[in-house]
Amino acid sequence: MDRGMTAAELTLLGLLVEQPRHGYELEEVISERGMREWTEIGFSSIYYLLTKLRERGLITQTDPTRSAGGKTRKVYTATPEGHRACAAAVEEAIAELHPVFPRILVGLANAPAIDRERLLAALDRRSRALAERVEHVGRAATADRHAPDFVRAIFDHALGQLSAEAKWLSDYRASLDTPPHDQEGAARMTPYDVKREHKGLYAPKNTTWAIVDVPEQQFIAVDGAGDPNTSTAYADAVAALYSVAYTLKFAAKRTDAGDFVVAPLEGLWWADRPEVFTTRAKDGWNWTMLIAMPPWITNKMIEEAKDTALAKKKLPTISEVRHLTLHEGPSAQVLHIGPYDDEGPILHELHHTYFEANGLRHGGLHHEIYLSDPRKTAPEKMKTVLRQPVQPTERPDNS
Q1: Per-residue pLDDT at 105
Q2: Pairing of strands 383-392, 286-293
Q3: Contact 376, 156 (CB under 8 A)
Q4: Which of the two residues, 128 and 69, has the higher pLDDT score?
Q5: pLDDT band at residue 279, thresholds of 50, 70 and 90?
Q6: What integer is the mean pLDDT of 217-235?
């Protein structure tokens, strides 16, 4: 970076280029934006870094100082030279590749120093730590839905890096489990992926209603009610599901059945008054959030995963996760492209046109599958599978 500027120095300088701030304001912004997920700035080092930046003429103390809560705070702002240095350092940091030396590379280079069992155990610990890190960064990324684009880009980059390492680690770990005589010419077992196994249900192409036959599936589920955009219970339910899902994933890797890809989030929705869905009166919504499981996941495995996840996360909603078997059978299904709140017209068409034209009625709860990550996808490009189990309006006479 410009003039040997460290990442921590550039981070503080950039915040002061935005606007003048005192030390406690800098700490608040660093915490709110989750900056400690991608750079090392301790609270105790902020004033040390400010002193270094001031000595270099990149920032200056404003006059007068600001008073807050009865205390006088020194307010700092970037100098013209600081603005120029910040711009140059930002451009270099974005444009140029900087070598990094992850400690894991040193460990792999010296892996012969430990036996196979210790290596496998170490890789498993890293897998669990990665899953926890992905969940932690994901929660931080969704904490502020109105964060600027550049803040979302930071979290997306971090999640992309973590996901890439998780995939590499999964593949490497699987290769070590393959007996030596099977490694040459043998295709590695592909992790179970419900999107691949049931393409017609998880990757439909039709943007108008069509009938599909949904086989029996099993899920982990959490029940609740209220507006999913504002309800703490909803956010906790989703966090609990993913915590248990990833715990199950890593446990399943140690079984004969093998690894699986964590499925997308799904939801069953209902209300005392069905019209609240077309009017988007979300406070009146009831929901059961779901994540699909491979056929070999047992209720015992789910309960064990809940205990493990709860011991680590201390999230009470984890105890509410339950096993659910669902067989929806014939269902009207469509791929909706666009914001969630634009679903009203297509649902109105289903209820008031498609049902009557095809002699159908409701046969179960409204079901949605969320194929897009709202943190990374523009609202107009969001993809959601909408599904409604159906029955014929007139049952045949079997007498």
Answers
A1: 85
A2: unpaired
A3: yes
A4: 128
A5: low
A6: 93
48 burial via Cβ count (<10 Å: 0-12, 13-18, 19+): exposed
Please, what is the average pLDDT of the chain?
84
Tokens at 172, concatenated? 């490497």
Selection from 296, 300, 294 nearest residue 260 by Cα: 294
The average pLDDT across 24-40 equals 77
d(CA 264, CA 251): 19
Q: Distance between CA atoms of 365 and 363, rounded to whole angstroms?
A: 7
What is the rounded distance in angstroms from the CA atom of residue 316 to the CA atom of residue 309?
A: 10
Mean pLDDT, residues 185-189 taken together: 45
Adjacency order of strands within the sheet including 21-22: 21-22, 75-78, 59-61
Structure tokens given for 217: 């599936």
End-to-end CA distance of the chain: 83
The predicted-structure confidence for 78-105, as pLDDT tens digits, reads as follows 999 999 999 999 888 888 887 777 888 8
Q: How confident is the model at residue 15 (pLDDT cuts 50, 70, 90)?
A: very high
Bridge partners of 270, per DSSP, are 286
Nearest 5°: CA angle at 226, between 134 and 148? 45
256-283 burial by CB neighbour count: b if 16+ within 10 A, else e?
Answer: eebbbbbbbbbbbbbbeeeebbeeeebe
Helical H runs in the chain?
A: 7-18, 23-32, 46-55, 80-95, 103-109, 116-143, 149-177, 180-183, 194-197, 199-202, 232-252, 275-278, 299-313, 344-349, 355-358
The DSSP output letter for 184 is: S
Count CB neighbours of 247 within 10 A. Answer: 25
Give the burial class of 329: count Cβ atoms within 10 A of its Cβ; 0-12 exposed, 13-18 middle, 19 or more buried: middle
The two three-digit tokens of residue 155, written as one number: 């979290």
Q: Which two tokens stand for residue 24?
A: 């406690």
Q: Give the mean model confidence (pLDDT) for residues 119-131.
A: 85
Range from 38-42, 194-198, 321-325 carrying the lowest mean pLDDT = 38-42
